[in-house]
Amino acid sequence: MSKQWAALVLVLIQLHCGDFCPDLCQCFSAEKVVCSDESLKALPFNISSQVRELIVVTSGISFLSGSSFRENLNLTKLVVLNSLVKTISHDAFERLQELEELEISGTYYWLSFDVQTFSSLAKLTRLLLNNNKISALEAGVFHSLHELEMLQLRGNMLSYLPRHLFHRLHNLQELDLSFNHISSISVDVFQNNSLLRSLSLQANSISQLPAGIFSHLDHLEELNLRSNCLSNLSAETFPSGVRKLILKKNALAQLPSNVFHKLHHLTYLDLSQNQLSEVPSDLFQNLISLKKIDLSENRITALPGSVFNGLFSLKAIHLQKNKLSSLEANLLKDQHDLEQLYLSTNSLQSVPQDFFNDLDFQSVVQLHGNPWRCDCGLQYLSEWLKYNGRNVEDLTRVYCDAPEVIRGEHLVTVDKEQLVCRNTSSSGFQGSSVPNVTEILVDGVDDGAIRCSLRDVKGVTSLHCKCTKCTSEKFHVLFEFADKQKSVFSNCSVPEYSSNGTSFH
What we know:
17-stranded mixed β-sheet, Leucine-rich repeat, LRR (right-handed beta-alpha superhelix), mainly beta, disordered C terminus
């Protein structure tokens, strides 16, 4: 629809509704009125009895009482946002007994109300009191709200929750207490909220969870404990039905191996931004439904090879920003359907042979921010990147950190011939260190039957190989000069001797 047609339709609607639309308000239907003007000092009094929704945004209203609404109103929804309301009287909503949804959020001053303020709202199912600087609540303030399904108290200044605050809210399904100053919670505060499905305690100051605090929440699916001060958890902390568990940004340094064992329905687990340095090998045992696990921004130095065993539903593993220096070869053994593997910003120098072979070709991998050592130990990764580089995020940021001669080069641009091990070796490969001797890995020889080294003596470079088993290997030597010209010398072979130390020079 063009802007001209939209404007015409708006005018026609407003003309149609003009006989009941209050001043400083807009009426887009017979049932919905929206008022937004800082000069509005009181709720409009001449509202039609047909109106069901009244929304007031950015007004100068500072007080709500029983006289704020005329009789015979049939509002089912009232929203007051960004107002100057300081006080709500005990009888403010007595004439709104049909109200099902009430929101008063974003007040500029400290909002206060009476313990009886909501007592007449027997049909209320949704109550939102966010960002109002509420500092305390009386125990009985919600006792009449037997039909309440959602309660939001987000972004206030609550430091304490009375034990019986929610005890009459038997139908409560969603409770948001995030961004307050709560430091402790009584063990029975949620005792009568067995239908609760979503509970957020994010961004408080909780340091300890009483044993059994969530034990009655049999229907709880999402529990958000992000940004608190939790330093320990017990095996009985979480209800078995939880599906999404957020423990991000706490003070967890270690976890009991059985803390999650009952969570068979868990699909999302966030342990990022904690202080974990190790992970028990059976920590995630029994999490058969787990799809995403986030362990990023911890202090993990190594992971047991079996830590993800049996987690066949995993789609994402986030391990970025840890201190991983090595990876077990079987870490991804069961991860055939993995879609995200984030290993960036660790201390990895190489990956085990065939490490990524179990991944699907659709998997997205992060490898940047590691000090990759571009020698013979990285030949597998280099080869894997040739065929799977499109699956690596920020591939151009995957650099060689060593050896020094190729430091800073993109791994994908390094030739395979450059990925050699240059370890100082000794004469005959035993004994003390000898200068100007470089050991060379012989590709295709897995049992050490042939070991070779380069020796540079007075400007003359010689190739020394030692054979410990019968062999008929032939040697092809490739010379590449500074001008990129290449020369191949292949007129040499090893005699078929059988000894314990036949040397070829």
